[in-house]
Specification:
The chain has 391 residues and is an alpha/beta fold. The protein folds into two domains: 138 residues, Aspartate Aminotransferase, domain 1 (Alpha-Beta Complex), CATH 3.90.1150; 237 residues, Aspartate Aminotransferase, domain 2. Helix content is 38%, strand content 16%. The chain is built from 13 helices and 13 strands. It has an eight-stranded mixed beta sheet, with helices on both faces. Strands 10-13-12 form a three-stranded antiparallel beta sheet. The protein has a two-stranded parallel ribbon with strand order 1-11. The protein starts with 13 loop residues before the first helix and ends in a 7-residue tail after the last helix.
Length: 391
């Protein structure tokens, strides 16, 4: 029997779909199941990694909180987007990837039974980490308005309780690609202040915004600098998934606890990856802008291909959701049919939020070219039937 902390946790599904697609060994399968990307990191990143592999300084437990230059750059990065001055020595810890940072923060801030509010749908890995830390996930629905995801602002007040300890927010969210506007953030900030809770901000994709949208960091709002903990990484924006480098930038009053958890969890960071992360964080803004333009182009092809199908237009990120329940399928059934009949590997969203998440499958558009995506409609029709109302 599983230990109690695991009993309400579920697998992410991505591993299973990736394994099935790998086993098939068919290059014609569209790999839309996993948040990968074929876009390369900024110039110099790979070379810095290769050089670091031969350096003694990179093969060490020290420094425990990460290289000074990396901590400084991470603090500056968060400071630019939030308008808050973060002294890097007393605000920043490097961690082994963003999700490691999220878990460290949760372990440093939650007591057993504390509630964490997060948007719905949301990545199951975040939900699982809340449970691992002894917390209770509370889902704030995102509804569909004018073809986009929007926070259900009317529900927020009903979800607050004396046990509300933190808000775990991500914009663009994953897997939905929901982007919070100023009114959303102001409402969340007000609730955060009223409940004396932490705002844990997963900034992993904050710059991957489409259609001219701009970054709005929660720490920039009144009263939020002292209660916002920002977790970032090089995985998505810098296209460095395998390097496993992230950071936590937080108020001085909590950063020592987070650092203690970090040392107790992974002991030290990935030495051979940190110099490459420094190179990536020094890349010009045009580096991310160019990558985002490519991802937006791929999103647009996918939306064109799925016109008429019940999809929600993401405003950022790497993926979009198809409502397969509206087509008469469960997410698990649709995922199997898409692979077998359409040669599309797509992950069922079962468990990725409330029960309604089982209505969706996720299409990741960051790892396939526009040309490869140009026959998605044919594949979806072969697996799930034609779009409603299309003869």
């Amino acid at each position: 029997m599983s230990v109690s902390r695991l009993r309400k946790m579920a697998g992410i599904g991505v591993d299973r779909m990736g394994h099935l697609a790998d086993q098939a060994g068919d290059a014609d399968i569209l790999r839309l199941e996993n948040l990968d990307t074929d876009l390369r990191p900024a110039p110099g990143v790979v070379e810095a990694t290769q050089q670091a592999a031969g350096l003694d300084v990179a093969n060490s437990y020290l420094p425990f909180f990460g290289f000074d230059d990396l901590r400084r750059l991470a603090a500056q990065r968060v400071g630019r987007s939030s308008g808050v001055d973060y002294p890097w020595q007393s605000s920043t810890v490097v961690c082994a990837g963003g999700l490691n940072g999220i878990l460290n923060v949760l372990l440093a801030t939650l007591e057993p039974g504390d509630e964490v509010i997060l948007p719905d749908p949301i990545y199951i890995g975040l939900i699982n980490r809340i449970r691992l830390a002894g917390g209770v996930p509370v889902f704030l629905p995102c509804d569909i308005e004018a073809g986009h995801w929007r926070l259900d602002r009317s529900r927020l007040a009903q979800l607050l309780s004396p046990r509300t300890r933190a808000f775990l927010m991500m914009s663009p969210s994953m897997p939905a690609g929901a982007v919070f506007d100023r009114q959303d953030w102001e409402l969340l900030a007000d609730a955060c202040c009223r409940t004396d809770a932490w705002m844990i901000y997963n900034s992993a994709m904050q710059g991957i915004l489409f259609d001219g949208l701009e970054v709005l960091h929660p720490a920039s709002l009144p009263g939020m600098a002292e209660r916002t903990i920002t977790v970032g990484s090089v995985a998505k924006e810098c296209r460095m998934i395998g390097w496993r480098v992230g950071w936590v930038v937080a108020p001085a009053g909590i950063i020592d606890d987070i650092g203690l958890v970090n040392i107790s969890n992974v002991v030290c960071n990935v030495g051979i990856a940190q110099q490459a992360a420094i190179v990536a964080l020094r890349a010009p803004a045009s580096d991310l802008a160019a990558a985002t333009a490519i991802w937006q182009g791929r999103r647009d092809v996918l939306l064109e291909q799925l016109e008429g199908y019940p999809v929600v237009r993401p405003q950022g990120g790497w993926s979009l959701l198809l409502d397969v329940a509206a087509l008469g399928w469960s997410a698990a059934e649709a995922s199997e049919r898409l692979l077998e009949h359409g040669k599309i590997a797509a992950t069922a969203m079962t468990g990725w939020g409330s029960e309604r998440s089982a209505n969706y499958v996720r299409f990741v558009f960051s790892n396939e070219t526009r040309q490869r995506l140009s026959d998605v409609r044919r594949r979806v029709e072969a697996a799930l039937g034609r779009a409603p109302g299309v003869g």
